[in-house]
Amino acid sequence: MKYIYGIIDSKTDGPCLPTDLSSEALAKEEASAQAGGITTCEEVYAVSYQDISAVSIDSQFVDYTTLRKDEIARYLLSHQQVIEKIMDTHTIIPMRLGTFADNNEEIKEILTKGYSTIKNIFEEIKESREIDVVATWSDLNVVLKEIAEEGEEIKEFKQSLLNEKKGVTIDDQMKIGIMVKNHLNQKREKYALEIQTSLSKVSEGIKVHELMDDRMVINIAFLISKDKQKDFDRKVEELNTKFTEKLNFRCIGPLPPYSFYTLEIKKMQFEEIDWARRKLGLNDISTKEEIKNAHQTKAFLFHPDKNPNTPGIEKAFDKITKAYKILCEYCEGDSCSFSKEEFRKNAILIKVRE
């Protein structure tokens, strides 16, 4: 099997990128990953098509869906280390963790099928890097105390409790806690908006990531062009100064555009496509409009609201929806063929991970 790290913007074949990505350097990572995985004792090498190349390595197949979180974390670290090392000398579009091909011929097929998409992405990220910015409360306990003491709504509610003969109940305490939480969220949103607005002015794009805990105020990825890097750094420093003693800022990068353009490869199965076609009652060749109309017709017939007393109608409706999603993913143009011969030309899908 071949494990694919990403796609670079040059024609390169054979061992490469750079020499310290050889077996000796990667052997340490393999040992930490504990046998079988991405980094086997082989050299990282490239397989090219026209003016782009896939960076890969010989590897045993690993089913990441069966691994524990800590194991996935180790593999992800190894995956990213190689990609970020390659970034020193090449612009690279990362592949999703766990992208395998059967052989070099399949890698070339991936490059051929995805060539237009890949070239468009390179045009988008040319001379750009990702910077991840995380801001956390310097001292969350202090912030919560300030909210509890300064919030007018909270102070009024506390005062009303002093006049209650029954004293403070558990429900009262929970209500105060909810009020403090709401005020914290409002303060967080206010700060986050100001930070995001300021940094967006010197960014090509942004991706807002999930906050991991209450200490986080923002967790945002910014796509920065090289000529705006100094402006971006200056903006971060200005924000750091403005929010001193309130927030701690941490910048991670420069990174490949993980948050914006990580590629995902999906190998379709003919049986799956044929099942979906038959489920919607389509011919061997159908347009996107025909697929849409067939789904609407079937969905109307099998909708649970139209058949409230029909056993198993929910499952039947779900299958119609699943079939439609499969065919929408498979049919990239205005029309598509479901014959086995044509399927072989379109069995591999290359898309940007959402």
In a few lines, what is going on in this structure?
With 354 residues, the chain is an alpha+beta fold. 49% of the residues lie in helices and 21% in strands. The strands form four sheets. Strands 1, 2, 3, 4, 5 and 6 form a six-stranded antiparallel β-sheet that branches. It has a four-stranded antiparallel β-sheet with strand order 8-9-7-10.
Q: What features would you describe in this structure?
A:
The protein is built from 13 helices and 14 strands. With 354 residues, it is α+β, with helices and mostly antiparallel strands. 49% of the residues lie in helices and 21% in strands. Mean pLDDT is 83; it is low at 18-41. A hairpin with a 7-residue loop joins strand 8 (205-208) and strand 9 (216-225). Helix 6 (152-162) runs antiparallel to helix 7 (170-200) and helix 11 runs antiparallel to helix 12.
Mean pLDDT: 83
Helix content: 40-55%
Number of strands: 14
Main pleated sheet = 6 strands, antiparallel
- Net shape: flat
Strand proportion, as a percent range, falls in 15-25%
Radius of gyration: 27 Å
Structure annotation, total helices: 13
- Structural class, by secondary structure, is alpha+beta
- Give the SSE order as H and E letters: EEHEEHEEHHEHHHEEHEHEHEHHEHE
List the helices and strands and how they pair.
Blueprint: E1 2-8, E2 14-15, H1 23-33, E3 45-49, E4 52-58, H2 69-86, E5 92-94, E6 100-101, H3 104-113, H4 115-125, E7 128-137, H5 140-150, H6 152-162, H7 170-200, E8 205-208, E9 216-225, H8 229-242, E10 247-255, H9 258-261, E11 263-267, H10 270-280, E12 285-287, H11 288-302, H12 313-330, E13 335-337, H13 340-346, E14 348-352
